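Quick start: load a record and inspect it. Here is Netrin receptor UNC5:
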Amino acid sequence: MGSMLSETQGAMEEAAAKAWGSKYRRSTAQTANMDGGWTEWSKWSPCGADCSMWRTRECTQPTPGTGGKDCQGLDIQSLNCTSEQCPQTVSGAEDVALYVGMVAIALCLTLLLIVVVLVYRRKKEGLDADVADSSILTTGFQPMGIKPSKPGVWAPRPRRLPHCKNSHLLTIQPDLTTTTTSYQGTLRSRHEGTGKFSMSNGPLLDPLPNGSHTLHNGKLNPDHTEFVSRLTTQTYFKTLPRDIANASYGTFNFLGGRLTIPNTGISLLIPPEAIPRGKIYEIYLTVQRREDLRLPLAGCQTLLSPVVSCGPSGVVLSRPVILSMDHCSDACLDNWAVRLKKQSYDGAWEDVLLMGEEPVAEPYYCQLEAETCRLFAEQLGTFALVGESLHMGAAKRLRLVLFSDAYCSTLEYNIRVYCMDDTQDVFKEVMEMERQLGGRLIDEPHVLLFKDSYHNLRLSIHDMPQAHWRSKLLAGYQEIPFYHIWNGSQRYLHCTFSLERLSLSTCELTCQLCVWQVEGEGQTFSLHFNIAKDTRALDSEFMLMDSSSTALAGPSAFQIPYLIRQKICSSLDAPCPNGADWRMLAQRLKLERHMSFFASKASPTSVILDLWETQHFHSGNINQLATVMADIGKQEAMIFLVSDGEC
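Running the structure step on this input writes:
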């Protein structure tokens, strides 16, 4: 029984095993033939830095079996986010900062390159401290940019000089029609300018047929006359009144220059080396109107010159500049105590020197000529000449000028007689005022002496044709008080003579104008003119017409070329046993009265040449200086030779 139970159990186990194996084979066959299937898409991811989002799915429902197909399609999808969904980052600001930095670096590199180029060109073009092109020495004393003044009809003043007889030697090169000068040219190297410069190795002086001497006329091409520096007058002093008619402005370096106020007799010469090397100054020159700047006068004092300002007052000068202005004192200076006054920073006026007693070591020195004052000043500022009469014989020059209306359609006819200081700036002011009023000049100006005698100035008109004219004045003369002229606040006064013609057809007026202080010591002027004839176009002929630029910088401001000037100074500054030095130059130019002043300077010759430049700016008479140099050169034959090494 036991064996039977064992056999039955074994049969059951064998049947169960067969049944399980059949079921396993059916399950395996079904799995091997199954295709893959996708799961559901995942949720969209947050927006990333690239402003996009994505989602994924898997091929696991079901996973493809052996022999089954893979899932068809993409397992990942991406989508651009909207602007609101994009994350806010600082990358934009960082990009802007990066761009700004790159632009700043580019600008710095550009500026650095410009500075390097300018420094290189400055050294190459000879604008450094050496000014090294010595071939200019052979160009001689060619006046550069100086146009002789046009002679007018009325010329009682010695400052109006005729053209010199060798005027063909004074070739005018640059255009001086502009009010300011800007130099933008270059100084070319010697090998580029061989056709432009005279390269002779002879003396600078050649005799003329008439026995006088002249200097080699090495003409510069207009391109070469612009070789100074790139100086401009584009930056102006904002604090000064922009009165163009009575002011001049310019920018200067160590080569110097000149400022001029046209038709006033006022100029400022800035000699070479007056401005320290490496410095560039903007200088101004202006004439003050009396009503703008009151000058206190006391006792017998009278104003003898215009009030002139040059500045800025704080600039440092290596040597004195020369301020030229008219004065109206008489020729006899023994009758006067003439003082130079300067306005201080607080507006007060102080005496800086007494004429004739100038300490040579002081920063100011004056040369008083017949009608002009030359002030050597080592400091800029506001200046004026004040005279005090020492006795009643002292006299100041007055200018008498007659005006009337340009047109007269009535029987009444008025003559305005102006009495003013005999200086060009006042005459210019009156001319401008009458031009605005429509007046015309009816006679040439007359000069008379007004003495410190306390007598008033009296004026009268006589000897009119009684059949055609009569005077409407009740008194026999008109009178201007003494103190109004001597130390009054106005530099010009006038009185009016009212006349009446008996018929509108009367146009010719002939009469005598009498002017006197003391009976029997007056002056009489004859007048004869046509009241219907408009002569205003001729009025300008009575003014000293200055056609030069108001601002000239560098060599164009001087008649003596810079390097020739240096050659003369080095030759004449050292004392010479036979006298062929700066002392002989001063004697030949009639400047021996200022020997002590010249001797106090480091280079006496340069100061003498500065003074010569101011005195002969308008005349252009360079042959006079050439003749003097020739006379000195006869005693020292090799003084003015140019050596082979220098060429």
